[in-house]
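Dear colleagues,

As part of the handover before I leave the project, I'm documenting each prediction I ran so the next person doesn't have to rerun anything. This entry is a single chain, and its sequence is reproduced below.
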Amino acid sequence: GTSGNGKDAFINTILGEDLMDESSSKVVVFKDHESILINDITDSEIRQVSDLPAFHELMERRRNTEGTFIDFKLPSPFLYDNGITIMDTPCINGNGNGGNPLFQYLHTADSLLYVLSAGSPFTEKEHDILIQLKEEAPNIPVHFILNNMEQIANEKEAFQVVDQTSSSINYYFP
């Protein structure tokens, strides 16, 4: 999703740990494993990251480093129970597909989980980004999460937001 939609908070909730922050600009692949094992992988080397503070430091220090990603293995009941791996990419800003690593790794995905914010769901910018994604990978299914529902004042309004967002998505992406 785009910046501010709560994608990293959603991932933190799924993983049960505060690992990501909104300023992340590296690709991080989360896999279930019996213990924590973090590797910084580049085109030329694989370097083990010693612990969580070192991981956070790496995320801050090496912004927008092309051709690199972090392989983060950790005990995760959610990942284990569902047999999935999560690849977190930097937020999409709609400035063409060349600037975001998502497009570099797009064809490795079985499906995409696109995070929308309930405060301003399915904006024109998000529509344009999703069109780009579908053009780049037309056969990859896209699933949507409507995040930040706490921004909605009451239950009636929440149902309206869900209905309007679903209608908009289904109109453009049946």
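The first helix runs from residue 7 to 15. The two ends are 19 Å apart (CA to CA).

All the best with the project,
I.
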